[in-house]
UniProtKB/TrEMBL annotation:
GO terms for cellular component: plasma membrane; side of membrane. Binds 1 Mg(2+) ion. Binds 2 Zn(2+) ions. Its cofactor is Mg(2+); Zn(2+). The keyword Transcription does not apply. It comes from Drosophila willistoni (Fruit fly). This is Alkaline phosphatase. It is found in: Cell membrane. The gene is Dwil\GK22608. Keywords: Cell membrane, Glycoprotein, GPI-anchor, Hydrolase, Lipoprotein, Magnesium, Membrane, Metal-binding, Signal, Zinc. Residues 1-26 form the signal peptide. InterPro entries: Alkaline_phosphatase (IPR001952), Alkaline_phosphatase_AS (IPR018299), Alkaline_phosphatase_core_sf (IPR017850).
């Protein structure tokens, strides 16, 4: 069976190298059954099914924590085996510190458009040749983002995959797909923050969204539904069983031990600022947020819990207060800067910090020099996603620009020899970057303006769906040109089109634009970064963190954690031997295949 498999792989490989893929031979394969493959011992994906004869009964296995653990460990083994074959041994280098940057909703189209936006915003030139800071990272890979129950995922399921190593259902946080509304313990999984704290590392989370929102919540909470951010959101049948996300942050580990908690979300935390000012009105379901009904002030409780810190814990509510914190002394910092999310950076309100400000403060609190055990930090650029949901292309791209600044700040403030930095997205969006605009054309401009005869000008950034449909649909005051259903772009004023709340066109009417289902990119820098290679299931990233950081389930994968920071020469010898064996095996099995 093994020989057959190797032959097949070599056959496909040599075919792809030598000539165009032979579709007729592919057609002779059995179509793979749906994903209900195996738990122990099996690989997943269609390649796995090659090993199964048609007589073998299909075993239906739940894709639970154990299943995804096996998938993650297999990917780790595969990646390491490939590295050894290529005689690349730096995969075993260990990271004292790990920073995971998540651009929520930052798919590839958004990265490319965001890069051009950055160049044009900074007036660096045409824009296309600009680099985002993570373009220069030495390693990249692609993550498959689907949830256990959805082809196109949400942030709760994907963040749980990245931070716990377990893919789960759409909407689930910190619990696997066996989750239960009636049992909060059911399917609970630990996060990279639990692993880090157990290893004596400092931990922190930074986001531009509410601190209780899906992505940050997946690092500390275990709950059936991401929407249960306040006590008032937990439905009757789950009251007394599931504790709301805000309470979990201050009551339970790992949240109650975080050294850094920075973001929005005063309202679900029970610390509303009634005087808050918002000068630009943004729309969307996410602009409203639940209120607590239990009269608890969770930030105040958090302060009391840290009352015995040798340096008093810091609770801040504005940029000014944040910058005054003595980050080299303070061990616990909470900053809640907004009742809801922090405002889109393109319309930043007085007193709001940037993601860069928060990232710098976080690293200041987490970094404690040579004698410390290091840290794990999540930084989320959380509103790229929300901008896209409202078809606010300009607001979304400006969030990418600010996200890039935060990554620059992290690079500037960390030692690359000891810090692994991952940059990725949880999922993509239904946004396209299209047309044939001329080189240097405004990325938020028209795709075909140079074609003077074209009666219908359209934009380079267009959405497949969303509320932008309504804004662009022709009506009596703004009629369509010829047979087109859309009003011509030149009927919008320049002021309208440059407003942060301008919506790009969406082809299908939805109140809320949707996510996209294609793979997302992962960029990696620092020790262990070359574990990020090829295409993998998104939950693998937790295993990269685990193996590189010597925390959690993959820390004993091989002896590399006990050997310390550099790969030992022993690895090289083993690597060469296995390379030789692999070469001989290939020669032997390749012969009959040709
Ligand atoms: C702080 O220390 C005092 C005195 O040791 C102790 O009684 C109290 O429980 C501690 N508080 C917390 C939140 O740990
Ligand atoms: C990072 O450092 C470079 C070089 O000193 C500097 O030009 C850049 O502005 C810094 N960026 C941030 C975001 O700190
Ligand atoms: C509609 O298209 C024609 C060309 O076919 C053009 O002359 C005219 O200006 C367009 N009208 C608007 C409102 O853009
Ligand atoms: C037509 O569209 C414009 C611009 O989107 C809008 O302001 C106006 O209210 C619409 N008119 C009608 C009658 O729907
Ligand atoms: Zn979203």
């Amino acid at each position: 069976m093994k020989v057959f498999c190797i032959q097949f792989v070599l056959l496909v490989f040599s075919q792809s190298l030598l000539r165009a893929p032979d579709l007729t031979s592919a057609a002779t394969l059995q179509p793979p059954p749906l994903i209900q493959t195996l738990s122990d011992g099996g690989d997943i994906g269609p390649q796995f099914n090659l090993e199964q004869s048609s007589e073998t009964p299909q075993v239906i296995v739940v894709e639970d924590a154990k299943f995804w653990h096996n998938v993650g460990m297999r990917q780790l083994k595969k990646t390491i085996d490939n590295a050894k074959k290529a005689k690349e041994y730096s995969y075993a280098n260990k990271a004292k510190n790990i920073i995971v940057f998540v651009g929520d909703g930052m798919g590839i189209a958004t990265i490319s458009a965001g890069r051009i936006y950055k160049g044009q915003y900074l007036k660096h030139g045409n824009g296309e040749e600009e680099t985002l800071i993570f373009d220069d990272f030495p390693n990249t890979g692609m993550a498959k983002t689907y949830n256990v129950d959805k082809q196109v995922p949400d942030s709760a399921g994907t963040a749980t995959a990245m931070f716990t190593g377990v893919k789960t259902d759409y909407g689930a946080i910190g619990v696997d797909s066996t989750r239960s509304e009636l049992n909060a313990e059911q399917g609970r999984v630990e996060s990279i923050m639990d692993w880090a704290q157990r290893a004596g590392k400092r931990t922190g989370i930074v986001t531009t969204t509410r601190i209780t929102h899906a992505t940050p919540a997946s690092t500390y909470a275990h709950i059936y539904d991401r929407d249960w951010e306040c006590d008032t959101e937990v439905p009757a049948q789950s009251v007394g069983i599931h504790v709301d996300i805000a309470r979990q942050l201050v009551e339970n580990a790992p949240g109650n031990k975080f050294n850094v908690i920075l973001g929005g979300g005063r309202k679900p935390m029970g610390a509303l600022n009634p005087q808050e000012v918002q000068t630009v009105k943004f729309e969307g379901p996410t602009e409203t947020i639940c209120a607590r009904n239990d009269q608890r002030n969770l930030p105040k409780e958090w302060l009391q819990k840290h009352a015995n810190d040798s340096v008093p814990a810091a609770l801040v509510h504005s940029r000014e207060e944040l910058l005054k914190v003595d980050v080299k002394q303070v061990d616990h910092l909470m900053g809640l800067f907004r009742n809801n999310h922090i405002t889109y950076s393109i319309a930043r309100q007085a007193g709001e910090p940037s993601l860069q400000d928060m990232t710098e403060a976080a690293i200041g609190v987490l970094e404690r020099g040579q004698t410390s055990s290091g840290y794990v930090l999540l930084v989320e650029g959380g509103r790229i996603d929300q901008g896209h949901h409202m078809n606010y292309a300009r607001a979304a791209l400006h969030e990418v620009y600010e996200f890039d600044l935060a990554i620059q700040a992290a690079l500037n403030n960390t030692n690359p020899e000891e810090t692994l930095i991952l940059v990725t997205a949880d999922h993509s969006h239904a946004v396209t970057f299209n047309g044939y605009p001329l080189r240097g054309n405004d990325i938020l401009g028209s795709a075909n303006l140079h074609k003077a005869k074209d009666p219908m000008v359209y934009e380079t950034i267009t959405y497949a769906n969303g509320p932008g449909y309504f804004e662009h649909l022709a009506n009596e005051t703004r009629p369509a040109n010829s047979s087109n259903v859309w009003k011509p772009l030149n009927l919008f004023t320049q002021e309208e089109r440059t407003s942060p709340t301008y919506r790009n066109l969406a082809a299908f009417a939805l109140k809320d634009e949707t996510h996209g289902g294609e793979d997302v990119a992962v960029f990696a820098h620092g020790p262990g970064s070359n574990l990020v290679r090829g295409v993998f299931e998104q939950n693998y990233l937790a295993y990269v963190v685990s193996y590189a950081g010597c925390i959690g389930p993959a820390k004993d994968f091989d002896g590399s954690c006990s050997r310390g920071y550099a790969a030992s020469p022993g690895d090289k010898i083993t690597g060469s031997v296995s390379l030789l064996v692999a070469a001989i095996v290939s020669l032997l099995v390749a012969a009959p295949a040709t």
